[in-house]
Each structure stands twice: as structure tokens, then as C-alpha cells.
Amino acid sequence: MDIKSLVKLTSRAWSLNILAALHEGVPGRQAPLLAATCAGRTSFSASLDHLIKMGLLEKNPGHGHPLRPEFRLTPSGALAAETASRITTAVPNDTQFALLRRSWTVPVLALTQTPRRFSEIRSGLVPITDRALSKSLHQLEDIEWLKRDIDVSRRVPHPTYRAVNTGIEVTRAVALAI
């Protein structure tokens, strides 16, 4: 999975959770998936539609009621679901897991396996704004998933960011798919 696909996948809050639940064997109907993810109906529905548009999920023909269809993973969805499962199991803490549902958390961590400058991260995530990247970096620093080091050996000191602790586990889970 390339970084653009990862950005697109994580742009909806519950996409990773839905894929991980399907990978772990939760039935593909809305009620069991909704219960497994603990999502709200509106955001769950938006994430489900997003996954269908990405081509990762499809309605299972011949199964389910027209108003309550059953969904299944497509071949590319099965690969994405395996990655999503690895990412979600890397973060067992429920309070920290909420950060994974934010749009830029996983893509930022994917790019910080090695130390990177702010501008390198921004160029790797083309649609991100400076404000969104700065906010994501601060949030990840606050929960100690990211470490900020300042290089003072040059005339103009500059910070570099790298994943640590749980952040490196998420990075490794993503790196297996890239």
C-alpha cells in the first residue's frame, strides 16, 4: 500500500476498524460491524461508503436483504484489511486508539520510521496543510509516539521527527504493506 492509498484510506475515521473487523472474522453485515467498531451510525455509514468507493469492499451478491446488505472484502481489500488489523493490534490502549482514527496520524507515522524534517514529511503528504501537520506532530509528541530531536550542529538548528514506542509499532505494521 503506497502512502497516497494510506492517506485516502485513513481519511474516514472508522475505515481501519471496519477492515480490521472483517479481517478478524466479524460477519459482513452492518449490525455486527457496527457493534464491533463501536462507531456512530452516521460516521460508520460514511466510512463504509468510502471503502466501497475505494474498491476495498463490495456487496455480497445473493446475500442479505436489499435494505440490509452483506459486505465482503475485494482482493485488494483483503490486503488492506490485513494491514489494518496489524495497525489496530499495535495499539491496545483504547484511549490512545482514538488517535488512530484521526486523518493524518497513520500517514505521519508511516513517514517517520527514520528521522525526518517537517518539510520532508509535508512533501510526502502532498494534500496536508502546515497547520494540520503541526497539530498531528504535537499530538503524537504529547502521547510519546513521536520524538522531536533538534540538530544544533548546523548554523540554523532544525528539528527532526521519528516514531518511538507505540508509534514505531504502528510504523512497522504499515511498513510491511508498503
Automatic annotation (TrEMBL):
Pfam family, one: HxlR
Signal peptide range: none
InterPro entries: HTH_HxlR (IPR002577), WH-like_DNA-bd_sf (IPR036388), WH_DNA-bd_sf (IPR036390)
Residues forming coiled coils: none
UniProt keyword DNA-binding present: yes
Domain HTH hxlR-type: residue ranges: 102-172
GO molecular function: DNA binding
Identification of the protein by name: HxlR-like helix-turn-helix
